[in-house]
Write a structure and sequence with these properties.
The protein is mainly α. The chain is built from four helices and no strands.
């Protein structure tokens, strides 16, 4: 397994552990966890893109499949926090923040892919 794929798997496991740790609380006023949600799931999506499991990093297929899987993971991760034994809560605001991170990462990937296609030399 490539280093990129190992990094993704390790990060994915760490994210699941962190988001399901019983009664985990982030200190501070307001909702400092919302930017953390966005960043965590944006990174999850970016690392999945880099695994190249679904094609070259910036291919349309890889971006589309990775984005869909990241969205599915965001929903699964948030909904499983409602399991009573975990002693966490499901939050639509958390889910929205997860989605913001995924969509932001996908948006950056689309822009980079377009720029890469536009900078290729024209065929002779």
């Amino acid at each position: 397994m490539s280093a990129r794929r190992i990094m993704f798997v390790v990060y994915a496991i760490a994210l699941v552990v962190a988001t399901h740790w019983p009664e985990l609380a982030i200190a501070g006023g307001g909702r400092p966890d919302l930017p953390a949600h966005a960043a965590a799931f944006g990174i999850w999506c970016a690392l999945l893109l880099r695994t190249r499991w679904f094609g070259p990093t910036l291919s349309k297929r890889n971006i589309a499949v990775s984005t869909l899987l990241a969205c599915a993971m965001a929903v699964l991760d948030e909904t499983t926090q409602a399991i009573p034994a975990i002693n966490r809560t499901f939050g639509l605001d958390d889910l929205a923040a997860n989605g913001v991170g995924v969509v932001a990462t996908a948006g950056v990937a689309v822009v980079l892919a377009r720029r890469a296609r536009n900078t290729r030399p024209a065929p002779d």
